[in-house]
Amino acid sequence: MEAAQRRVRLLDPHTVNQIAAGEVVERPASAVKELVENAIDAGARRIEVELVESGRKRLRVRDDGTGIQPDDLPIALQRHATSKITRIEDLFVASSLGFRGEALPSIASVSRMQIRSATTDGVAACITVEGGEVEPISYESMPQGTEVVVEDLFFNTPARLKFLKSDQTELNACLEIVQRLAVAFPELAFTFRHNNSELLRTTGDGDVLGAIAAVWGREVAKALGEIDHYEGNVRVRGFVSGPHFTKPNRNYQWVFVNRRPVRNRGLQTAIDIAYRMLTPERRFPVVALLLDVEPSRVDSNVSPTKMDVKFQQEASVADAVRHGIKQGLLRMGMLPDASDLIGANQALEQTRSVMGSGWIFPSGTSGTPTEALIQAQRPLFAPGSISVAPMAENPFAVRAYEALLDGLRVVGQIMNTFIIAENHQGMLIIDQHVAHERILYEKLRAGRGVVPVEKQSLLMPESLHLTAYQAGLLQENLEPLAALGFDIEPFGDGTFLLRAAPAALRRKSPSEVVVDILEELEHGGNGCVSPTRDGIWITCACKMAVKAGDPLSLAEMEKLIVDLCETENPYLCPHGRPITLVMARGDLERKFKR
After folding, report:
1. Which residues does 98 contact at the CB level (< 8 Å), separation at least 6?
2. Domain presence at residue 559
3. If residue 430 lies in a helix (H) or strand (E), which one and from where to where?
4. Which of 105, 193, 341, 400 is most buried by a 10 A CB count?
């Protein structure tokens, strides 16, 4: 009855603005995004972003753009006030990053904000807003441009404030916003500071690859190749890595449509398809794609953040992305082309097979079986000679050990990735990488930091130049990494010195392994990283293990299988991927109708 008596009423403007702010300004990064985009739309050439306490306490955005007329300042603080469109039809041809007219009033309603803007060098108009209450305009001296200072964000909405994540996570989100825009607009000079520390600076010289180097680092930029492809009224340009250079997550895959950072599942799928069968499982290439699409063919007004877009012909855009990446990789020599395949076939015609075992020898040799071939034919263990290893203390491990080693004989290696063997069960196919990963993981876990890991001192210490976020993550995990054999010490300003590494790394670069571990742990829990010791063991074991494509000698393959049999679970790696596939003798015979 009480509900039926409620009357319909209009909400007051302050409540309306706070509701709108909940859609537009979710966190400090949202405010940074809106203010920097306004600066870009104002024709700025230099943009400075400065944060205190990850933007919770204070954030400042300064530009040298055209500025705002004094009479327009109060109007700009009203909802849906904008200089970028005048009618609904303009939405379909809008080339500016902003156009909804919601950012400034939304931010002002949940903060203490001051705007200073000058249309020429000399005098600037200043306006102050606290929680949506606008104070009279004042004037002061300032060069041309606009400066927006936002203090005490969400001071009047404590419910929103308590849902913010850690300072490091919020800082990372703010930095990524500016990094993406720096790549999309390389002709603009960006500076990003946090608590008086400079975290980003771009030159504004128009070089996209230079901007990528400033954002992702020079090592990543050196691994990228340029693509430029035009198809179906869509231009796809940017930079991509070859299949040999991948990352453990999608954080290095950025897509821009008309220079706007976007999310689109169809484009993500197109990238995955372009690299299908080229990159290892759970590894992702580095991609920075800039798509130029006619504005009338793309809808950017899908969500208040404008990150989600829809295309009039989504399939054709996805095809352009897929074909652009493929052709770019071919031009850069990262994929075999037709001439390579012809050459390979001609080389195969000049070779002949020996003993029908799949071992290939160059034409002109005698074809006499080598010692390696002879050794490959012998069983590893004589019948009845199997003894259970001390590590196999549970019944499952004992049975697995006995079952795998019973009559085991290594046949060889195919594709430098899979070990082929046989035992009394039938034929075995063993993935060498995940097998070694299981072995190393259990050794690291068994030691639990008590038994020192064998490590190798480096002749020359290697420098680790990390992002601010990665440096904090490494600082928190120096102790567990030291237990794994990494001797790392801080060297100041985001730099660390690597003096020793686990001996098990073999021919791998220790510094690259450390960076890879940090990147895999970096986004383990929605950006809020709290890696467990077990997680570090798993990650480190993955990085230290032999890789797909590493050739192994017969002795190495035998040792790998014996060590695998001593693990608790020789059939699954720590990530849950299969290690060993068994094709029983009966199944194999049925395949050939025997």
Report:
1. 34, 37, 38, 41, 82, 84, 306
2. yes
3. strand 426-431
4. 105
